[in-house]
Structure formats: C-alpha cells, structure tokens
Design goal:
The chain is an alpha/beta fold and 481 residues long. The protein contains 16 helices and 21 strands. Strand 16 and strand 17 form a beta hairpin. It is globular, with a radius of gyration of 26 Å. It starts with 9 loop residues before the first helix and ends with a helix. The chain binds adenosine-5'-triphosphate, 1-O-pyrophosphono-5-O-phosphono-alpha-D-ribofuranose (PRP) and nicotinic acid. Nicotinic acid (NIO) binds next to loops.
C-alpha cells in the first residue's frame, strides 16, 4: 500500500483537531525521533528510512476521499469525531515543516536523534506515526543486515526472505533495508524493480522432485538454464547431490558454460561444505561456489566460518527480513521544545520516566560526531542543543549515567550529523539511489571500532550530552515534580 496522510493513528488526528480548535495548530514545536537501546543486543544501528519518509512527505495531502472517510468516523456518542470545518482545514493543509535527518546508512546510537522535526505543532503531530513506522522497521532490518554482513566478511550474501516476510509491504520494505544494510542481492523480483536491487536465484527442491531422479533433474537444468548453473543438492543426499552436480558441470562445460556451484540447504553445513569443496576441487571445478541456506543468521554464519566452513555465498531469509530475534526497534518521537506564543521564546520540554535515564532530552538537539586521534574512526557523539548556541566545551556526559563523562581532545575533527532534509515542507535532501546509502553504510561500519561492532556484548560507544543539556534536563525534572 502506498503511504497516504491517513497512515497515522486516530489519536494524532484527535490531537490535531484539538490544537486547531485552540488556535495552536501553527505553534512552533520540535520533536526528536530516537531509540533507547541498539537492537539485537548490539552496539550500533544503521539509520534507514529517510527515503520512504521523503516520498511520503512529497505527496502528503488529505484528499476529498480521505476527509469523507474521516467524516464518517464516530466518536463515543455516535456523533462524528471530526468537525466539518476541521476536515476542510485538513483538505487545504500543505506541509511547512523543517526536517533534519541522519542520511540513510549513517551509524547511530541510543539517545541520539535520527530525525528532528521542527514546525507547526499540528503538522509535527500528524507525522509522528508514519515517521516511526518507516524509521523503526528500516533501521531495524538495515542493522540486522549490517550484522549479517559483518559476520559474512567479504562473502556474498543473498536475501531470500520474501516468502516468510510480514506480508507484501513488510517484504518489500525488508528487501530495501537489507540491501541498504549490506546484502548483495535479493530473490525478491518486485523489490529489485522497485529499488534497483540486483536479483539472484538458484533452484528449489520442487524442480528436483519433479523428475524421476536427481541426475535427470540436474541434466535438464544444465540444458534449460545453462547460464544459471547452481544446483540444490540436498533433496535426497547432499554429497551424492554434489557428485551429480559435478556431472552436470561437465555437461555444462562441454557446451561452453560453467558450473556455478552447489547449494546446501540442510545438515551440518560446516562438514558438508568442506566435503563439497573437496569434491568440486578434485573434479576440476575450483571456481564453482558453495552456497548455503537454512535458517541462517549472523550468529550461525559467524559460527560456521569459525568452524572453517567452505561457504562462499550465504542465502539468508527468515531471520533477516523478520528481524527474528528482535521484531521491532523501540524508536520513539518526543516533543523536545515548543515556542511560547506570548513571549516568542522556546520552552524546552521533557517526558519524565520512572528513571532519570529514560527521561527524554530537552532542547533542539544536533548530533556532533568526533573522530579518533588517528582520524579514521568515530570516537564519540555529543548531543548539543541549538538553543544553547555552539557547544562551549567538548565535554560529553552519559545521559543514562551522569557519572560517566569524558572530554574530547581539542585536536579531534568533528561533524554535525543531522542534515537538512526538508525546508518549509519542500524536500531539499538530494535524491540518491539506494546503492549510495548502501555505500555510506559500508563506510560507516568501517569507521566503527571492531569492539563496538562485536555481535555479542559489544563495547559501549560513548554518547553524551553537553553540561548545558544535562543541567536543563535536571531543572525540568525538578520543576515537573
Ligand atoms: N556446523 C554447524 N554449526 C552451527 N550451526 C549449523 C551447522 N550446520 C547447520 N547449522 C544450522 O543449524 C540449523 C539446523 O536446523 P535444522 O535442524 O532445522 O536443519 P536440518 O535438519 O539440517 O534441515 P531441514 O530440517 O531443513 O531438512 C540451521 O539453522 C543451520 O543453518
Ligand atoms: O531458511 P531461510 O533463511 O528463510 O532461507 C530461505 C529458505 O527458503 C527455502 O526453503 P523452502 O523450504 O521454503 O523451499 P525450497 O523447497 O525451495 O527449499 C530455501 O531453500 C531456504 O531454506
Ligand atoms: O534462489 C534461491 O535459492 C531461493 C530463493 C528464495 C528462497 N530460498 C531460496
């Protein structure tokens, strides 16, 4: 389904009507979108979702059909929830917000905003749900793919998830994010067309089973698909299958084609891949690849590689596209400042939580990333508020544990990461192909210390606020209590 202005939770429209009735629709506000914990027990995430967000914003409008639909929604007493004059206002509404965002593929960490929306309160509110929907899932799957990519080293990774993805939208969105995060190709042909992702495929058990024997099936494949010579060998007996694939490889070679390889889809992939490799090499097919699939994820891939598996290509489906071990990223969207209509001053806001650590950060935040001494890597992120002006110090304080603080040396380079994406409702972020975001993700991963990229119990990348933001949050917490 293509995104529409109705892609929101009803309560957002309820609040929007309230702001409109109170004359507060255009009151300037700032919201931050961030998560509190990196997914999969990892140390980082790969920001993704800006592309779909910009597509949504470009076409954002309530059609007559949309407002007719809203007019029919009843409130608690059966009468319409929305007033006709409010619906007429929605019909004429054109976005005027400013959006600053991490470009897709940027490495990101807990508490640092991935998006900052600034503009009329009503518009910021209406967009909340769709922004979270896009950023949470895209960032989640891009991060999973980045972990799979890391585990697979320089090997090829194919995404095979379509059949077990969460519906059509989930599958397309997952293929997009998986490619951004680092897989090399997808089996999903529609995603290939929609996003310009390379598509690849081997063959299924049904092909082999539809013939009397595996030998016949492979010979027929060699004859009918000579330029796609990968053979699924585990329908009956994986190693006999490898021998049959070698026979088919000779048939291919005889006709001027080559044996692409074999695919293993069950059994002990470490042992079988080594034995398949030995047989392929001994038969004179050193260039033939060993493809493996079967419920793979980053942990199994890492484990198999550490066992010396001779696998060149990893087919990863279900675990990747469903983000199986963590099906949602808990990204949130919090009001961080609102402009007082009387004084014209910005009033910073916090949402209290049971712990200070979970209390949101006030201000108009920007993310400043400092380099390591050698300059090649990311050292730490400082969250500073534009309400305070440029940061006066390079001190950063962990917002979840203010005892933890550090000061970045004066000679380190830095970059502010939130970039202008929309100004006055108009998209200003340059159009980029998905492959460009994928290249960025690769470069960003290589800028992270390997200890931060570790799959399990990673080193904590330092993210801290300025002393000004910390003090402001403390004052607001005390005032609220
Ligand atoms: N050497 C290995 N080390 C660690 N994990 C492995 C190894 N070999 C295979 N695996 C993984 O172990 C799991 C085995 O799953 P399962 O028991 O369902 O497979 P199978 O019985 O071999 O095949 P199937 O049931 O699909 O016919 C898969 O996730 C697979 O990727
Ligand atoms: O395990 P995943 O990571 O999700 O990878 C995709 C799986 O989908 C296919 O199996 P399926 O049994 O659906 O069909 P097949 O007969 O083609 O193997 C394929 O053989 C993989 O095992
Ligand atoms: O091409 C393949 O091998 C493939 C495609 C989808 C799912 N499993 C395998």
């Amino acid at each position: 389904m293509t995104a529409t202005a109705l892609l929101t939770d009803l309560y957002q429209l309820g609040m929007a009507q309230g702001y409109w009735k109170l004359g507060r629709a255009d009151q300037p506000a700032v919201f931050h979108l961030f998560f509190r914990e990196a997914p999969f027990g990892g140390g980082f995430a790969i920001a993704a979702g800006l592309g779909p967000v910009l597509d949504l914003l470009r076409g954002f409008a309530f059609t007559a059909d949309d407002t007719d639909h809203l007019a029919r929604i009843p409130g608690g007493d059966g009468r319409p929830l929305f007033e006709a004059a409010f619906l007429a206002y929605l019909r004429d509404l054109r976005l005027t917000i400013d959006l600053d965002a991490l470009p897709e593929g940027t490495a990101c960490f807990a508490h640092a905003p991935l998006l900052r929306v600034r503009g009329p309160l009503l518009q910021c509110q209406l967009l909340e749900t769709a922004l979270l929907n896009a950023l949470n899932f895209q960032t989640l799957v891009a991060t999973k793919a980045a972990r799979v990519r890391d585990a697979a080293g320089g090997d090829t990774v194919l995404e095979f998830g379509l059949r077990r993805a969460q519906g059509t939208d989930g599958a397309l969105a997952a293929s997009r994010a998986a490619y951004l995060g680092g897989v090399d190709a997808t089996s999903n042909v529609a995603a290939g067309k929609a996003y310009g992702i390379p598509v690849k495929g081997t063959q299924a058990h049904s092909w082999v089973m539809s013939f009397e024997t595996e030998r016949e099936a492979f010979a027929a494949w060699a004859d009918t698909a000579p330029n796609n010579g990968v053979f699924l060998v585990d329908t009956y007996d994986s190693l006999a299958g490898v021998d049959h694939a070698i026979e088919a490889g000779r048939r291919l070679r005889g006709k001027g084609h080559r044996l692409g390889g074999v695919r293993l889809d069950s059994g002990d992939l470490a042992w079988l891949s080594r034995e398949a490799r030995r047989r392929l090499d001994a038969a004179g097919f050193p260039e033939a690849q060993v493809v493996a699939s079967n419920d793979l994820d980053e942990h199994v891939i890492r484990d198999l590689r550490s066992q010396g598996a001779a696998i060149d290509v990893w087919g990863v489906g279900t675990q990747l596209v469903t983000a199986h071990d963590q099906p949602a990223l808990g990204g949130v969207y919090k009001l961080a400042a609102i402009r007082d209509a009387g004084s014209g001053c910005w009033i910073p806001k916090v949402k209290l939580s049971e712990t200070t650590a979970k209390t949101s950060l006030p201000g108009i935040l920007q993310v400043r990333r400092y380099d390591t001494a050698a300059g090649g890597r990311a050292a730490a992120d400082q969250l500073w508020s534009e309400l305070d002006g440029e940061p006066r110090t390079r001190e950063l304080i962990d917002p979840t544990d203010p005892i933890r603080r550090r000061t970045i040396a004066a000679d380190r380079g830095w970059k502010d990461l939130l970039e202008p994406a929309v100004r006055g409702g108009v998209v200003v972020f340059p159009d980029e192909p998905l492959a460009a975001a994928r290249d960025r993700a690769r470069a960003e991963r290589s800028r992270l210390d390997p200890t931060v990229r570790r799959l399990v119990k990673p080193h904590r990348y330092p993210v801290g606020v300025t002393p000004e933001v910390l003090a402001l949050r403390q004052r607001l917490i005390e005032a609220a209590r």
